[in-house]
Every structure is written in C-alpha cells, then in structure tokens.
Amino acid sequence: MKQxxxxxxxxxxxxxxxxxxENIISLDLEPGMQTSANDxxxxxxxxxxxxxxxxxxxxxTGIVIVYPQSGCRISLIDEDMISEARFLRRTLECAVxxxxxxxxxxxxxxxxQENMALQRFYLENQLSSKLLEADNxxxxxxxxxxxxxxxxxxxxxxxxxxxxxxxxxMITIKDLKIVEDHNSILEAIMEHNPEKACEQMxxxxxxxxxxxxxxxxxxxxxxxxx
Length: 226
Known about the structure:
Elements: H1 12-25, E1 34-35, H2 37-44, H3 48-59, E2 64-67, E3 71-74, H4 79-103, H5 106-124, H6 128-145, H7 149-158, H8 160-172, H9 178-190, H10 194-205, H11 207-218
Antiparallel strand pairs: 1-3, 2-3
C-alpha cells in the first residue's frame, strides 16, 4: 500500500476509510485482492477496529466484499457499476458546469487556469497519479463555484467504481485527451457559454466508454465477467 498522510484531527476510522479508498483507486489494492484488518493495521498505524469499520463502510458502495472473521476482498471492476457511476457523474457534472459558466468569477477562472498548468506539467512528466489528483481538483472546483460541495462529496462515494477505470486509463491509454478536454471546458466557462460548457463536459466524460475495451484487454484479471 502507498502511504496516505493522516489529516489533523482525523479520527482513526475516517483515516482508514480515506487511506483504503485512495489505495483502491490507485490500484495499490488491486481488484480481486484479499486483505484483512491484521494485514493493514501496521501499514496504516491504527488498530483493527477502525479498519473493520472502514471495510464495512466501503462495502456499502460495493467496492469491497466483507467476509465475517476473515477480512475482505477488493471487488473486481464491474461494468454495470461503471455504467451507473458514469450516468450519475454525467447528469450532475453537466448541470454543474452550466451553472459554473454563469457564476464563475475572475478569481475562480485564475484558479482553474493554475490547475490546468499543473495538469500539463504532470502529463508532460508522466506523473499519472498526480494528474488524476489534479483532474479531481478541477472537477471539484466546479462544484465549489456553484456552492454544491456536499453534492460532490455524495457523488464521490459512488464513482469510486469509475475512478479505478480512470486510473487504468492513465496507465494503459497513451494518447490521453484529459488536459485537452479540460482546456476546452475551461474555454467555454471563460466565454460564459453554458451550453458549450455542457457539450464539452459530456464529450470529456464519454471518453472512458470508448477506452474500456482496450483497458479490459490489457488487464483482463481486474474485471468481473460480463
């Protein structure tokens, strides 16, 4: 597992949830992998109780399967779950980006531009995990612009299924269009053009439906049977 820094005042269970979640998304905890509280307690530096609680909370999203007395298994990537996550994300983010194009301030545009500069740097230097982090920050900022941070939090709990595919995309697909897509979305926002912003967002979020076939071929053991 990769190390995840514990936040100030973060209790043990919340830290365990966040650390395990981040390792699932980054594929350091691989699809199909078996693990347990005993396995993770030394790596996370927390006792078994909070880790078991974290497993139970994550199991509610279907990303792990808990076996009483014997730990859990990281779920295989399920294309049906990805389809639902994609639908949720497309519905919410297209609505949010339209509103952001109307409400965005000059300061917020500058913040998005700074994020774009980071994305370009990470892409050019092949820092895929950092690029995914900046990608998430770009999308989260749109929810902040529209005052819908809690909606973003609720969405993130389910789209973990899609996030693993996004991580695999950055590993597998060489001709990434992520930064190019975000730049087109930002241009539409700067033009205060809600319909164009929505169109560009829809195009961006639709890319993984094309990529999944190539990714499944490259990593067949990560996917549940169709």
